[in-house]
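User: I'm putting together a teaching handout on how multi-component assemblies are represented. Below are the sequence lines for each component of a complex, exactly as they appear in our records. Could you produce the 3D structure of the whole assembly as structure tokens, so the students can see both representations side by side? Please keep the chain order the same as the input.
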Amino acid sequence: MNKIIECVPNFSEGRDKQIVEKIADAFSAKDNVKLLDYSSDADHNRSVITVAGEPEALKEAVIEAVGIAVELINLTKHSGQHPRMGAVDVIPFIPIKNVTMDEAITLSKEVGDAIGEKYNLPVFLYEKSATQQHRENLANVRKGEFEGLKEKMLSPEWKPDFGPLQPHPTAGAVAVGARMPLVAYNVNLNTSDLEIATAIAKKVRHIGGGLRFCKAMGVELEDKGITQVSMNLTDYTKTSIYRAHEMVRMEAKRYGVTVAGGEVIGLVPLEALVDSVAYYLGLDNFSIKQVLEIKLME
Amino acid sequence: MNKIIECVPNFSEGRDKQIVEKIADAFSAKDNVKLLDYSSDADHNRSVITVAGEPEALKEAVIEAVGIAVELINLTKHSGQHPRMGAVDVIPFIPIKNVTMDEAITLSKEVGDAIGEKYNLPVFLYEKSATQQHRENLANVRKGEFEGLKEKMLSPEWKPDFGPLQPHPTAGAVAVGARMPLVAYNVNLNTSDLEIATAIAKKVRHIGGGLRFCKAMGVELEDKGITQVSMNLTDYTKTSIYRAHEMVRMEAKRYGVTVAGGEVIGLVPLEALVDSVAYYLGLDNFSIKQVLEIKLME
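Assistant: Of course. Below is the structure of the complete assembly, with chains in the same order as your input.
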């Protein structure tokens, strides 16, 4: 695959495995689309599918999956801990390889347009695709959830970007948009004192005057007798792994606490690793095309 | 491709482009084999082809390429600066992905057996495939070159592992073996004094009491007004990039010289980079399967 976009659609069904598998099937055995993972949570009554592919092929598969979800998931009978406003709740597109953010935004709009029209589903563009600033944040778009959607959409502020002006009777509405890949990165601390971990997290994160694209919280690892600063880096091209790591180390010094090591959770784009190795080794002109495995893929 | 072996055969023709292209063609448009690069040097009168593929497919393509070279290259008429003993001078196999060194050794022996038989070509196994210690080092195997081969092979010490007991009249003999991938890594120094760079190189390298799998020399970068320690890491799984880098930094301190940065030359296995990022960030359980691009390849 030359161009790759990742998509992580969230579906409001986490208990009926047959339904989840039917949706996931839309991504299986398709040319130029690869189903990477899917997982369901019964308490949340929600499933998250991770898929990647060539833009056009991915678009077709996502449209197909949305159709299946609209048909099989009925929000009027849905309960679960996780907030939701639609059968398909949110569809983020993430540029991965040879794709710009603008291309991912364009794809998200094409998908929004298609599913609005085809399934009579109101679509709100969010994150980088948002057409109005108050729609960038998913929590804002989803506020009021499925049950509050009908009234919320009466306001011109919440006129959808695509699809009908009122919610789909059983499938609600959906947020579609483009965003950067998240990097989940934790730094373990040589202290069992959660207060210290929390204090460091507050310094490191954006809202505490820290790094622009860093969310962070203190976490206790009881079995290990240590704590950690657990972080989400929402734009690793600007807030790199090494910057988050070194800032935790720097803030920890105030407490006489040392860093016990870092931990990458889940998948990470190669560029995010290369960026860190380039910092520590002082590499000037290194390109990921020099990585043998990447060269072999070309 | 699930299993990948790299092969970097050297051919004793660097002037006649048509011949080089005919040999390279043996690797083009083959299923499960990828021609990564080839380059010719007219002074050396020698060409190096870099190819990678699934073991079986790669084996067939290499055997085919050797046949073309034996037919088209005549060592009795060959001159060039680079030492050589055969039309195909050396064929190293390098395990890259899901392949053990033992499997690469086995493949090298299968290829050696096949080309010895098929083309009446004496084959010496070298490096990790060597059957006798004095044949591990390629320079030993090649000593005396094409012109001295007939007399050299009279000695039982130089009975070939495969093929006839005397050289091929026009194609000489070939060394075939398995080895680790080389990592070419340089560290730039904030000094224009070549003597300092050379002194550091001597400390860092194996023969000077330094790192086991490190070859190094001092080099002057005249246009930049600095020097560098230029290294070959012959087993990056044991002598990692970060170890070489930090040892150069440590030795440079003695001269009050600082490190201006590192430089990776050519291709590098992902594992070698990950190993260094894991050192600097203190990552404990990171796997290259967490790299998105690698996950996509699975």
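A couple of points students might notice: The mean pLDDT of chain A is 95. Chain A has nine helices and eleven strands.
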